[in-house]
Amino acid sequence: MGEPARRLGIRDVAEQTGLSVSTVSRALNGYSDVKLETRRKVEAVAQQLGYRASFAASSLRSKQTKTVTFMVSKPWTKFVDPFFLILLDGVELALQAQGYALQIIMARQYETEFEIIRNSVERGRCDGLLFGRTRPEDERVEWLQARGFPFVTVGRTDKSDHDWVDVDHYKIGYQATERLIRLGHTRIAHLMTPLRYTYSKHALHGYRDALEVHGIGHDPALEIECYVSRKTGADAVTELITRGVGPTAIFCGNDVIALSAMEAMHKFGIRPGPDMALIGCDDVPVAAHVGLGLTTFRQDLDALGMRLGRMMVAKLNGDAGPHQQLIDAELILRGTDLPQTGGRAE
Amino acid sequence: MGEPARRLGIRDVAEQTGLSVSTVSRALNGYSDVKLETRRKVEAVAQQLGYRASFAASSLRSKQTKTVTFMVSKPWTKFVDPFFLILLDGVELALQAQGYALQIIMARQYETEFEIIRNSVERGRCDGLLFGRTRPEDERVEWLQARGFPFVTVGRTDKSDHDWVDVDHYKIGYQATERLIRLGHTRIAHLMTPLRYTYSKHALHGYRDALEVHGIGHDPALEIECYVSRKTGADAVTELITRGVGPTAIFCGNDVIALSAMEAMHKFGIRPGPDMALIGCDDVPVAAHVGLGLTTFRQDLDALGMRLGRMMVAKLNGDAGPHQQLIDAELILRGTDLPQTGGRAE
DNA sequence: CCGTTTTCCAAAAACGTTTTTGAATATGGC
DNA sequence: GCCATATTCAAAAACGTTTTTGGAAAACGG
Predict the structure, then answer these.
(1) Which of B240, B328, B243 is nearest to B278 (CA)?
(2) Could you tell me the distance in Å between the CA of residue B67 and the C1' of nucleotide D3?
(3) Of A76, A120, B150, B237, which has the maximum CB count within 10 A?
(4) In this complex, how many residue pairs, one in chain A and one in chain B, have their CB atoms less than 8 Å apart?
(5) Rounded CA gap, B149 and B165, in Å?
(6) Residue B19 CB in 7 A reach of strand D
């Protein structure tokens, strides 16, 4: 028999405070043309009533959502790559400091990513977009650029005129390979992350350049592309062993591949480290605790995330750009980067 | 000098098709009072123009967002617990099938969770809410119940009249403990997840009940609460060893704790398994590959997620409920659940 | 062939804000 | 004391949809 439970609206605050709706709105949104005393009263009443502006209404009228969407891709979430998660933390921090909210959305597969982006952008569900796993020719980037919608990517593309942050995978590939060469290795395999991603190519170039600089030619049989499920690091190791192409060291594109590779080595009775040097990338939590400790590269993801967030905010505030940031990874020496022994069985 | 680039609106579709705005809306939303031929034409034009309804406008008018928010807590994202991530996959699948979108939002700490929920609900940013890490007395649950806002939790509270899905941690605790007792152990420690969470208490009860049923009293010195950073599983093991309370087996509330415990054991020269039986919970990806293989419990998270999603949809569709689902975990026997040897040094 | 129902569409109201515009009052300079 | 300006607020328009309401034309029943 009661009221039909209307939504608590700005009108209620206006009535309760004896002011007009417009004044209440301006008071709550921090405009300067409202007396301090009035603002106080409005805030008090709003607080007491528990009023908050309807998101739909305010974003319809003001044409901004004060929200940034980060799109994550499924393959990574499945195999629980900490990469994006830790990144998100920094992003959120940076956005929040400027009054923006972060909202995360999952994409089941690459084909749907584009659709998700279109939907988010065309329906006006966010003011800016963040995503990773960029490809050299990335249709998402092209579409967003054409529309002039604000976005920052984690990773580069072939186009250079958009905002991005990225880890210097070229340097990682170069440093890892050089480290292994210095340890006396000459037959160094590279278990690559999927080459469709730009960063995989960067790592590959670093790897090849390091070999070349030291007078070692690269051998296609030692370069194997790995995937999350189809062909894992273990599969690649099996391939290397059974084919007898005889590497004595392996540089893996990421730790998941390295971990998987280590597992296969155990099956073959090969000790990661002493029998087969190994360097990974990402420094996943278990890397330090597996076997002798996996030598790998650590990235300051918190910093990367913060930069990502700040770049987004800058763009949203009208800063033209393009802003681009390349950050270095740090080589974490542990137990698996051992010298070439030569005295191995076989 | 061109047009000021107005947003593409439903009006444009109406003009292009020669119909009224209302008819276009009804056509696009699948109402039955529009001729098939007309609907086709509208859809074609909308498609061609690339029109999509403004989210703000449509949700303002229709009072629904067709969106469900899942709130994840930071501690878990930091330590990259795959738990919620895999869960999310199932949730998304179930929601999407019913035309709902899933949006994820991070909470930096528990204090902000409540604020985030209030903001999402009061500003009308979503139609339903999903979250985990429930506590026996959970203010989030109470507040949402009082407001009558649709939500489903992952985990139970002391109130029984709301929707939830949960893993039967009582049974896990009971089974793990019983397994260790059957192996001859009588001094069985329990490294607990934080007791503020309901599920930790369930596991503890299962542990204690199993002991009691087999005539073993529980020893407070063997029950140690572990946290993600402050007091880890390693710290707890150190405490157990240095205090000399002499357990021969440990049941850990989750695998992260177990992994950390194993690390400490190595420091003490204790072999997980032979010297100290160990059972974890969650079956994180590395569990199978660490040492002898960690014996643990696997939960069908995909199924749990799907149920969670379907429950949410049911609630959104007006199904009264309450719906509650308890799912069993499966004991995965690997290498660390070994019999009591008795012949250990000291 | 007339009255009734069904089918299909359009006009207008409504959603809850923010922004624009304007106006009353207070303040300042001289 | 008067004009110009600053301060503070209110009325009304606008945002882009969906929903409500109504009405014309078509189909139907007898």
Answers:
(1) B240
(2) 58
(3) B237
(4) 109
(5) 17
(6) no
Report CB contact under 8 Å: A60, B56.
Answer: yes
Task: Sort out which chain A residues have CB atoms less than 8 A from B53's CB and list them.
Answer: 123
CA closest to B108 among chain A residues: A89
Does the beta-carbon distance from B108 to A92 stay under 8 Å? yes
* Band (B196; pLDDT cuts 50, 70, 90): very high
Q: Which of B72, B109, B74, B63 is nearest to B91 (CA)?
A: B72
| ipTM summary value | 0.90
Domain A10-62 of CATH type 1.10.260.40? yes
**Is CATH 3.40.50.2300 the right assignment for the domain spanning B67-164+302-324?**
yes
Closest CA to the C1' of D16: that residue is B57
SS3 content of chain B, % helix, strand, coil (to 5): 45, 15, 40
DSSP lists the bridge partners of residue A69 as: A103, A129
Q: Give the pLDDT of residue B216.
A: 95
Separation CA A267–CA A264 (nearest Å) = 5
CB spacing of A52 vs B85 below 8 angstroms: no
Which residue has 């999407």 as its token pair? B96
How far is residue A127's CA from residue A151's CA, in Å, rounded to a whole number?
Answer: 9
Q: Could you check whether the bond before residue B322 is cis, i.e. omega within 30 degrees of 0?
A: yes
Residues of B in contact with A7 (CB under 8 A): 124
Distance from residue B268's CA to nucleotide C21's C1', rounded to whole Å? 78
Residues 6+ apart with CB under 8 A from B147: B121
The chain B residues in contact with chain A (CB within 8 A) are: 7, 50, 52-57, 59-60, 65, 74, 77-80, 82, 85-86, 88-89, 92, 101-106, 108, 118-119, 122-125, 259, 263, 285-286, 289-290
The answer to whether residues A161 and A194 touch, using CB atoms and an 8 Å cutoff, is no
**What CATH number does domain A67-166+301-327 carry, 2.30.42.60, 3.40.50.2300, 1.10.10.10, 3.40.190.10?**
3.40.50.2300
CB contact under 8 A, B79 and A285: yes
Q: Domain ranges for chain A, please list them.
A: 10-62, 67-166+301-327, 169-299
pLDDT in tens, chain A (346 residues): 444 567 899 999 999 999 999 999 999 999 999 999 999 999 999 999 999 999 999 999 999 999 999 998 875 544 445 567 778 889 999 999 999 999 999 988 888 999 999 999 999 999 999 999 999 999 999 999 999 999 999 999 999 899 999 999 999 999 999 999 999 999 999 999 999 999 999 999 999 999 999 999 999 999 999 987 777 888 999 999 999 888 999 999 999 899 989 989 988 999 999 999 999 999 887 788 788 899 999 999 889 999 999 999 999 998 887 899 999 999 999 999 999 875 443 3
Of all residues in chain B, what percent carry a pLDDT higher than 90? Answer: 78
* Closest Cβ opposite residue A60 in set B54, B86, B105: B54
What chain B residue is nearest to A287 in terms of C-alpha separation?
B286
**pLDDT tens for residues A314-340?**
999 988 878 999 999 999 999 999 998
Strand D, nucleotides < 7 Å from a protein CB: these are 7-12, 14-20
CA B17 to C1' D28, in angstroms, rounded, equals 31
Summarize pLDDT for B47-104 with one digit per residue, the tens. 999 999 999 999 999 999 999 999 988 755 444 455 677 788 899 999 999 999 999 9
Ordered alpha helix ranges (H), chain B: 10-17, 21-28, 36-49, 55-62, 74-78, 82-97, 110-122, 139-147, 169-182, 198-213, 233-243, 255-267, 301-316
Spacing of A45 CA from C23 C1' in Å: 27
Q: Say yes or no for a CB contact (<8 Å) between A56 and B54.
A: no
Q: Which residue is nearest to nucleotide C16 (CA to C1')?
A: A57
According to CATH, the topology of domain B169-299 is Rossmann fold (3.40.50)
A78 touches strand C (CB under 7 A): no
| CATH fold match for the domains A10-62 and A67-166+301-327 | no
The per-residue pLDDT for range B140-191, each reduced to its tens digit, is: 999 999 999 999 999 999 998 999 999 999 999 999 999 999 999 999 999 9
